[in-house]
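forwarding from the other thread:

> can someone predict this with FE2/S2 (inorganic) cluster?

sure thing
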Amino acid sequence: MVRLFIDNKEIEAEAGTPLLQVCLSNDIYVPNLCYLEGTKPQASCRLCFVEIEGEDRPVTSCTVEVRDNMVVKTDTEAVRRLQRTALRFLLSTHHVKCKECPANKKCELQRLAKFLKVGLRPKNLDRHLKETETDKSHPVFNYYPNRCILCGRCIHACKREHGKALLTFAKRGIDTVISFYGEEDMSRLPGEKCIACVEVCPVKAITLK
Ligand code: SF4
Ligand code: SF4
Ligand code: FES
């Protein structure tokens, strides 16, 4: 076990645990979207910044393991500025239609925006939406490219369940989307239909048909 201080609170944790996990387990909310417990952190959402004493600049807490005598601050001006920038970036490719969205009121993006006091439709934000609103090509799932925040949790959850992922990132840059490998791969899954990807998606960008 190690002993550390987060926002002046003394905390004991298992050595090697990701700092983000320790914060969340101790009711200290750090904005995050791409972290998935039990999988290798991808650090793609750039939201979970914290300041650690001795470090020059804020670091992503999902990629740092706790160590003895660490002193952490989760609520500094620099941290909030970086988090708001990351959120605005995500919103620039997100089609906000909460009333029609199955994630409404259970949505991580809504929670984050409220926490960071950023509107879901910030002024002066250039939006880059994709042409396809709904991809219905998969026999089991629908995918909503303009809702997807490309956190990658679906891919990592799938890999965690089956040893290999049956979906992946496709295309590049602002055209990046999630793509399924196809029905053939699905039919090789053991037992009932697996919906791990649906369950971990923070914005319901993958739904069951
Ligand atoms: S994913 Fe969240 S923020 Fe986006 S439309 Fe749905 S409920 Fe609204
Ligand atoms: S479909 Fe959902 S879980 Fe997968 S990358 Fe998009 S937002 Fe993340
Ligand atoms: S949760 Fe750490 S970068 Fe996304």
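The chain has two domains: 2-88, 92-208. thats all i got for now
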